[in-house]
Amino acid sequence: MRKQIAIPAAALALTLCAGQVAQAESKGYVISVWSQAMNNVDDSGCPEGKSPIAHEVFAYSMKGLGMAQADIERMVKSQEFGQHYREQASMRGRKDGKPVFVYKHPLSVPEPPIKLEQGKEGFGFNLDGKVGPMDYTDPLTKEAGVDNLAARVFGCIDRTRGTLDAPVGNTQLRWLHYIEGNSWLLEVDNNRDAPLDMQNEDNVTVTYYRGQQSPVLSASGFQRNVTYTIDPNKNLTKATTTFKGRIKDGVFLSEVTPQFKFIASTRLQPIYDFKQARLRLKFQPDGGLQGFVGGYLPITMIYFPFGDYAAQGEGLGSGDVAGIYQALQKYADTDIDKAKNGKRTRISQTWTITAVPAFIDRPETGGPSRPQRAEAPRPDRYAVR
Amino acid sequence: MRRSQFFSASALGLGALLCVAAPLTAAQAATTTANVASDLPVGIRTGTAKVTSSANDGEAETRNRNTTSVLFADEAGRPLFTQAAGAECVGACLEKWRPAIAPPKAVPTKDWTLVGLPSGGSQWAFQGRLAYTAADGEGVDAPLVMPEWNQTPFRAPATPSLEVRDGGENGMRLVRVTPKSWIKTPYSIGVAEYRVAPGQVLAVGITAANTLGKPLYVFSGTPEQAQALPRAFTPLEASGLSEPIGDFTINERADATRQWAYRGGALYSCACDVSTGDLNGEGLAPGMAAAVVLRYPKPSQVAIKKDNLSIGRMVDARTGMTLYYRDRALEQYVPDHMRPPNGTMDPGIGASLGLKHCSQSCEKEWRPYLAPANAEPQGYWSIYDRPDGKRQWAYKNSAIYTHANERPGSLDGNEQYLIQFEDGYGNEALPTEFGMGLMWRALVP
After folding, report:
1. What is the ipTM of this complex?
2. How many CB atoms lie within 10 A of CB B16?
């Protein structure tokens, strides 16, 4: 009698155990670094030198407006140069012969001498499927035809140069989101009732959410495994925020996503609006991720923080802001959303993403929709950015 | 209470506490308004001024020598002053002070009454004290600016500021919109501005770090309704040593505890108020209403809709369409849930912007929110006269619009940027004070 009972019991136990193994899961992250993807490892990409900085901008602008050289030199050398700059350089634009605030009239000055970055390698994606003379080769994937024209415009401006390990420090191009009071979240999901394989997985989605809390910082960087709640204000994300793709050898690569648009910050771009967007994420051994998102972005949005910071930004090394705008327009490389007057309005740009593990809560359910895995074992080094 | 009644009441209370109580019907809600609020009558406005005070005016509220204060003013924006109760300005006093004349259609309220003048017409009186305006030009023609203006020089021109000297001759004192200064409250109870009320509400737990505290509710229903109050409402207890003060009295409850009451209505707090600025207890029980001591007027065609962000949005009462205004594209973007209780509206920007920079084609997408011909400006609400002869509502000087083709209650138009500079695509630049652009935002109280 006991044997007959024991066997079904064992079978039942095995059945229960087997049911516990097959569990769906997702993995959450909070973005710790969001910066324009630049690859300025040395100065070889600027053989003609760097783009002008404030005192040079002042000099050629005032000279062009007829100021005497002696006066220019006196003002540049004076301790009140900042004040001279704000008063004179801000109004260096000319419209119908009258001075105008150049940052709101960036086309009102003769084409400033912005020097394009001429390196061969740059991060991003081949958005148009072609290989052209202005394209890069991605140093990581070795993909040719990478479209990242914005990097060429910014690549010889001191303030906007950077590398993968030392991202651009200009607050106009690097998001100090802990000031803004919200967080940017990514959720990786394999859309099936099985554990998420971070090495190889088909039918994967990566969804961007806005979190309500500021990212938690510690002495070693962004705190891992903090819980963030998705902001219920769905209007913050203006268009599709889910990338579909697959994970291969530890790298997620998305399909072309028609539009990835979300409200951000006037410090960076008021609204990020990627068209023909691509996302590539590499899952790191320490549990975090690093990757890139690229697409065609509106020139006016890219320019916004430069125009907004105006003379202050130029003084801090942004160079000739009007020149930046003119260069962005001149080298715009897509006909998507052309203006009524035929001018191109978008340019290719790539942004780099670094993220640390996080848990994501839904406000309506009070918890995650799918179980989320705790972080993988990490090495001794804590510092993550 | 019999055992069966106790259990049924407890069950009801527990159920109400656990479940979100259904809002009252309109008929039920109509009976909940407690008679504690001071309404702002037509002809009385509020505004902000820099006030230079005399060193020690003897009132409880501590003031710096130069402060920004919200004041009551007459229709023309002239700040109002009052003397001590029972005093009257006569003779030489009238050379410096003019009686604050009420408009012919003025209707008195609890705090604002009308006193007939020998020459005809009526003079305002505030809480029994005759109101005056200064005859020496301390009033200005420019509209008063609303609280919390931003005077960053680069962003906006210096807003016209009214500077007023308080503690003037003949014992005149400004009538400040700080109920705390003219309502005597127990130590633990304060007054705070609750945007969703809209108005100033009694609250507890007000500190420097938490300027809103937790709001209070006043119950003025029947004993039967009191028995059926959801357990989310907690009586505001008065300590054994507390004494009545001003309009605050103490009720002895059946369970031998003591409860504060204001103007006859017992005071409660609500467990439903969790986040700063919440006022979720309104409409949850018959006889219970927010303890609004100064209700800000709003047009009857405007309703406040609370949402899960707990800050409330203003909508058209009839259609439910969200109301919008144009804000500056701020350097530091603040998500709705992080916005400070006083919002980010800049009345100086609103006044500078007026109806400009929304052309005919703009108005096809953003429809002006029109005021009826007989509408009157009041409180934070003013009216712009449009070039087409119609009148458009403005809130804190910002012109109000609705978003065309938007479902009622949706927020499709929220946080849409108007990046506007001379960009080579046919757009014109905005004036310097508006920075690089504007942003459409849903209107919050």
Report:
1. 0.79
2. 20
